[in-house]
Specification:
The complex is a heterotrimer of chains A (170), B (632) and C (458). With 170 residues, chain A is mainly α. Helix content of chain A is 55%, strand content 2%. Chain A has one domain (10-164). Chain A has 10 helices and 2 strands; from the N terminus they run H-H-H-H-H-H-E-H-E-H-H-H. The radius of gyration of chain A is 16 Å and the shape is globular. Chain C has 9 helices and 12 strands. The chains are: A mainly alpha (170), B alpha+beta (632), C alpha+beta (458).
Chain lengths: 170, 632, 458
């Protein structure tokens, strides 16, 4: 179970989820389902606040200032036009959703400069690991956590849209 | 503690020890098992939690003692085997910086190459992290010398072992169809049925199969994709659930659909005459003046990072060492009996610890031209077995090809690596030329594109038994009980290396036939000598190896290869026909001490071309029958 | 999000138990009758809104055919409360005495009259006994005609008993403070029984012939209080009444405690009074195709992990000794092997030291506490006041296209008597009804609709 540091106001959590949807490409209604049994959105927001501090505040301010723009523009503004602090904080958040792991923004910046020695990270929790989005983007399940039945691997999976929502793709 | 007399004392609660204990218990024999590691019962949550939280999800990662410690920030790095009472090797200590660091590497690796496989010291043993592959050896595997003039023959042949294969398949619970498995001379009794129907093939298997069907023969052999027999439930068996395709067989099946020896161990312990002591490390095999083993001494510990808290010895009518192929010779070599057996016990041949072998793996990987949806199903459901035998075996190592269902997880640690590439803007995966970063729909579509096309082929090469591969005792490195850790010398013969050359060519040919784009990254000359898992081989224009140090004639080519361990540690107390050049006779009985049996993969004279588990399980059941016959 | 919304109504349940002595006629008539008959007595009582509380009449208002949800707000809390209320109504309805006019102390409940697993999945795949018929006991069992035979020492049967425990992942049996093995029963209701019989799923041969998907009948509400009950499975855990146990605090039964013969050990059977210590009730409904998983325990079973170190020494638990140190009595450790129930009491000093170790989210703990308080007060003066709901696990997204488990909530659920050694919060390894039962298959390896009953066929 995650430790809730401060009870997020609904709009703060909604903003975080909406921004996460823009960045990750996963539908917001899947990142935070109506009945949210795992509570990963709140968990990741808490981690982002605790580990990101001012960087998160800055990121959310950029989002807030540009929230009426089309999603593609918001993403570009954050990842390419608002400086490294904002960009790498956003990438850390994307990796929380995709891999259920926390990669510090500085770690990611160093990795981009030279990936030879890898990037250090920690796994958020066993529960979060089972909800990692990279697997669903691959139309599969996390290694070590399957809810499907014997023989499923003999047939193709459902389309990508069943996994990540939206009219995203094929 | 106890010195009561048992019928049999078994060192090691892995698959061999558990199978023998169960057979003996069923016959009412009094058995004591000594297990160095901790009790595995009731620890499934502990193991799986450790796995989920592991930053490096390597085969040994769930088990104990933990292979990593975490710093204040939670970052995991290799733990210190000098501080462990029953430590074990880790694939995290095979880099240049770690493989010879006594505070990182459990094994005292002397090289020139690193021994890259690992084993467990825990109730249930190494097979807890096996994949499940349960192949029978092909008949010529037992006759490498008489058929091809290479290495050794086994003192038994396929027909001798065949009935035991059937019994082992029932004991473990193997899913396969006989109709798929009678290739290269493998035979079954009429009407033989595997315990369970075959595991269905994956889309990766189907895609590879469609490609190899179009290939011309390789070395005169037409390649086909064959379903792999597996110790994995396709129907409910032994009160265990059916496989749900968790794609995690190595290191741990979350639902125990894959057999592990705790199943047999707990059945054995249901017999009132079978008992076990955990956290009990056998430290010496005591031999009396008549050359009989008279006792096993042991040390015990409470804290896995602490020292000795107890000691004792046990005696029995028969003794079985089943501690796997590095810890068993270690025990034998440690057993100097106050100087009376300076070269260790059971070692008049000098071959204890010698001929250490593995299946070194040549790993290749590619993107298929169409989606084949990896990361689904068991880690492997099929392979290409056709090249396990053939006339080429007189010149170069044979291999089997394992088709992986787990994308590029093994070669590059995916999907994490490629995800980092596309989010951060890097190109470690080689699929992100330009190292751009993406978000939103372009991120999901690009990531989906590669993840659904990734696949890998692993070539398990038959390493020859060599004189420069051995287990001895480290003169200086110790564990926290004060016992010397194993010292390893390891290298590959040219015969083995030529197997890699052929593997590389075969991989590329398969990818070409499939229309797949190969991404296998070969090491370079700079890696040789710095990366202990990299070697070079130079062959002249006729394909003959050019010895090290000799000038390469015109037309020579040099290949650099990275190898991985398959986890198939064998050969270090081999069986044979003469006490001069083997440690045990065909009954797996020590030539030197008639009341001592050595079981497990250490008895293999060659590593053969199939994964060792089914064969060593068959041999263990055979040894159990011999022991029962001894006991009368 | 699909949710069955019902009307608030209070209806008394009337149960007619028809039992014939003619096996053939009974089987034949069940072959003609509907598998999942229409009933007009579906309980659609909705959870009382404060300041209203559960009354005795409400507590005994009858068996819901499906969930009734009437809250104005829809969230995890209100849904959990509706499911937990539903669980209590179901538990009380099924625990009505079969013969309501008999005021004798040892009253058999409705669910105790259902078909036992062994009466359905018989040796050699023979057709099941008629619904509710009790298996003739082994010859060594005498002295209590008609009494059920308790032969299971874990929540799944193992054959023979001395083989590895049937608990998932080789865990183990439960030994009470008097050194007796806890015994288990699996019982199925009539619609479930009918589906198995009609489709010949009671044998391996029959399962091999069956080519459809397994889909047990569903509880549903058609109009007002008319609908169908659907399939219900009960798993019960029973403790031998002995020593200082007070049978008046338990629902008790007279049963044969039976252990089959093993090499060197003759079979044993003795008549005993057993008290109910745990019960799973699993109900398939149209709205919850992954079934609704309710679990109850006797209030004296065990402390929570947090409470365990502060328990007063004189407090009496069924499976915990407050005076034993953690070094001598480590929590939730399996008994040492061998597990031989014919050696009774358990040799040596070992007694199971159990604590409740699964963490539940606040929506679940709050709801369970709310309804336990009210229902236990409403049934005060009966044995049922000594039972409490642990939780109800239910699918939050039953039609999710990529998750056949339907996103269960709470994520984990365990009964200390039945998932004793897998209480925790680790995905897949710790007890979670739906995830484990999602792996259930027939003997041929095909999905069996969340029940392991079918894999027990011979």
């Amino acid at each position: 179970m995650s430790t809730v540091l401060t009870q997020a106001t609904t709009s703060e959590l909604d903003d975080f989820v909406n921004l996460s949807a823009i960045l990750t490409g996963i539908a917001a209604s899947m990142l935070k389902p109506f009945l949210d049994t795992h509570g990963t959105a709140q968990t990741y927001l808490d981690i982002a606040k605790q580990k990101g501090g001012a960087a998160l505040t800055e990121l959310m301010a950029v989002y807030d200032a540009n929230r009426t723009q089309p999603p593609a523009n918001i993403g570009t503004i954050i990842l390419e036009q608002s400086g490294d602090t904002v960009a790498y904080m956003a990438k850390s958040i994307m990796l929380l959703w995709y891999l259920a792991c926390w990669y510090d923004p500085q770690e990611l910046a160093a990795y981009r400069a030279d990936p030879t020695n890898g990037a250090r990270f920690t796994v958020v929790s066993s529960d979060a690991y089972t909800q990692g989005w990279v697997w669903r983007v691959g139309q599969t399940h996390p290694m070590g956590y399957s809810t499907w039945s014997f023989g499923y691997w003999h047939q193709p999976p459902q389309p990508l849209s069943a996994f990540i929502g939206g009219g995203n793709s094929k | 503690m106890s010195e009561q007399n048992y019928d049999v004392v078994i060192v090691g609660a892995g698959v061999s020890g558990a199978l023998i204990a169960k057979e003996l218990g069923q016959a009412g024999k009094k058995v004591l098992i000594l297990e160095a590691g901790r009790d595995g019962q009731g620890s499934y949550e502990d193991y799986l939690e450790r796995f989920y939280m592991a930053q490096a999800k390597v085969p040994e990662s769930p088990y104990t003692p933990p292979i990593v410690d975490a710093d204040n920030n939670g970052f995991q790095s290799p733990s210190n085997p000098s501080n462990q009472a029953a430590g074990r090797p880790s694939t995290l200590t095979l880099s240049q910086n770690t493989w010879q660091d006594r505070n990182r590497s459990y094994l005292d690796q002397q090289g020139p190459l690193a021994f890259a496989s690992t084993y467990e010291r825990v109730g249930g043993g190494t097979m807890r992290h096996w994949l499940g592959t349960s192949l029978r050896f092909v008949p010529n595997d037992f006759r490498l010398k008489s058929e091809y003039g290479v290495a050794e023959d086994w003192p038994i042949d396929y027909d001798d072992l065949e009935p035991w294969y059937g019994k082992a398949e029932a004991a473990i619970g193997i899913a396969a169809d006989v109709a798929d498995q009678d290739y290269l001379g493998i035979t079954f009794p009429d009407d033989y049925q595997y315990p369970m129907p075959a595991i269905p093939s994956s889309l990766v298997d189907q895609t590879v199969s469609a490609g190899v069907e179009k290939m011309p023969p390789v070395d005169g052999v037409q390649l086909t994709v064959t379903n792999t027999p597996a110790g994995r439930n396709s129907i409910p068996y032994q009160n265990r659930r059916v496989c749900a395709g968790n794609t995690n067989c190595i290191p741990i099946c979350p639902i125990q659909a894959k057999y592990d020896p705790t199943v047999t161990l707990y059945e054995a312990l249901q017999y009132p005459t079978v008992s076990i002591m955990y956290q009990t490390v056998a430290s010496e095999v005591v031999v009396d003046a008549n050359g009989q083993v008279s006792a096993i001494k042991y040390l015990q510990y409470d804290d896995p990072n602490g020292g000795v808290t107890g000691s004792g010895s046990v005696s029995a009518t028969r003794y079985v060492l089943a501690a796997h192929a590095i810890e068993t010779p270690r025990l034998l070599l440690m057993s100097t009996n106050g100087g009376r057996t300076p070269n260790g016990v059971a070692n008049s041949s000098g071959h204890v610890g010698e001929h250490l072998m593995d299946h070194p793996i040549y790993l290749s990987w590619a993107l298929a031209p169409t989606q084949l949806f990896g990361y689904r199903g068991p880690l492997s459901t099929a392979g290409i077995e056709d090249l396990r035998d053939g006339s080429f075996r007189s010149e170069r190592a044979a291999f089997r090809i394992e088709i992986g269902n787990e994308g590029w997880n093994f070669p590059i640690g995916d999907p994490a690596t490629t995800t980092l590439d596309y989010i951060v803007g890097a190109n470690v995966s080689q699929t992100n030329a330009g190292s751009k970063s993406f978000f939103g729909d372009s991120l999901t579509s690009r990531l989906n594109f590669v993840l659904t096309r990734q696949f890998r082929l692993g070539f398990l090469v038959e390493q020859t038994p060599d004189d420069d591969c051995r287990v001895t005792l480290s003169p200086e490195w110790k564990d926290s009980l004060g016992l010397p850790r194993p010292r390893i010398e390891y290298n590959f013969s040219d015969y083995t290396k030529l197997g890699f050359v052929a593997a590389k060519q075969t991989a590329t040919a398969i990818y070409n036939a499939m229309g797949a784009k190969e991404y296998t990254r070969q090491p370079t000359a700079a890696d040789v000598g710095s990366d202990p898992t990299v070697f070079a081989i130079t062959v002249d224009a006729n394909g003959n190896p050019v010895p090290d140090g000799q000038a390469a004639p015109a037309g020579s080519t040099t290949d650099y290869f990275r190898f991985y361990g398959a986890g198939h540690t064998v050969g270090t107390y081999r069986m044979g026909t003469s006490p001069a050049d083997s440690v045990v006779n065909p009954e797996q009985r020590s030539w030197d001490h008639p009341n001592l049996f050595l079981v497990g993969s250490g008895v293999f004279p060659t590593v053969a071309t199939g994964n060792p588990t089914l064969t060593l399980a068959a041999l263990a059941l055979w040894a159990a029958e011999t022991i029962l016959s001894d006991l009368g | 999000m699909k949710r069955a919304i019902g009307f608030a109504a209070t209806v008394a349940l009337s149960v007619a138990a028809c039992q014939t002595n003619d096996d053939q006629a009974a089987l034949k008539s069940s072959a003609l009758a509907p598998i999942n008959p229409i009933v007009t007595t579906c309980d659609t009582t909705s959870p009382p809104v404060p300041p209203n509380v559960v009354t005795p009449e409400m507590a005994n208002s009858g068996l819901p055919c499906t969930l009734t949800f009437t809250a104005s707000k829809v969230d995890l809390t209100t849904l959990q409360e509706a499911f937990d209320f539903n669980s209590w109504l179901t538990f009380m309805a099924l625990s009505q005495p079969v013969d309501a006019s008999n005021s004798a102390a040892d009253l058999q409940t409705v669910w105790q009259g259902w078909s036992d697993l062994f009466a359905v999945m018989r040796e050699d795949g023979a057709p099941p006994l008629p619904f509710g018929a009790v298996q003739p006991p082994p010859a060594s069992c005498t002295g209590a005609p008609g009494a059920p035979v308790m032969r299971m020492i874990s929540k799944t049967p193992t054959t023979p008993t001395l083989s590895v425990s049937g608990e998932p992942l080789n865990t183990g049996p439960l030994i009470d403070q008097n050194g007796h093995y806890v015994r288990y029963q699996i019982l199925i209701n009539e619609p479930m029984y009918n589906y198995i019989v009609r489709n010949e799923l009671y044998s391996k041969a029959g399962q091999q012939k069956f080519t459809d998907s397994i889909a047990f009948p569903e509880g549903r509400l058609d109009t007002l209080t008319t609908g169908a009950v659907g399939a219900i499975v009960v798993k019960a855990a029973w403790k031998v009444m002995a020593g200082s146990d007070d049978p008046s605090r338990f629902q008790t039964t007279t049963a044969y405690v039976y252990t089959p013969a093993e090499p060197g050990v003759p079979e044993s059977c003795h008549r005993s009074t057993l008290g109910l210590v745990g019960i799973h009730i699993v109900h398939k409904t149209a709205g919850e195709p992954q079934w609704i998983w309710s679990t109850f325990e006797h209030v004296d079973n065990a402390p929570t992990l947090a409470q365990a170190s502060n328990v007063t020494a004189t407090r009496k638990f069924n499976f915990f000794n407050p005076s034993c140190s953690t070094s001598k009595c480590p929590y939730n450790r399996q008994p040492p092997q061998p597990w031989n129930p014919s050696v009774d009491p358990f040799p040596g000093e070992f007694r199971s030291q159990i604590v409740r170790a699964t963490s539940y989210p606040t929506e679940a703990t709050g709801s369970a506490a709310l309804w336990n308080r009210q229902f236990r007060a409403a049934v005060k003066g009966t044995v049922w006041e000594n039972y409490e709901l642990i939780t109800t696990q239910w699918p939050t997204d039953a039609t999710n296209p990529t998750d056949p488990e339907g996103a269960p909530f709470p994520l984990f659920a365990a009964n200390t008597t039945m998932e004793t050694y897998v209480q925790g919060n680790t995905p897949l390894a710790s007890s979670t009804c739906m995830s484990c039962h999602n792996n259930a298959t027939t003997t041929t390896g095909t999905r069996s609709d969340f029940t392991f009953v079918l894999e027990k066929a011979h």
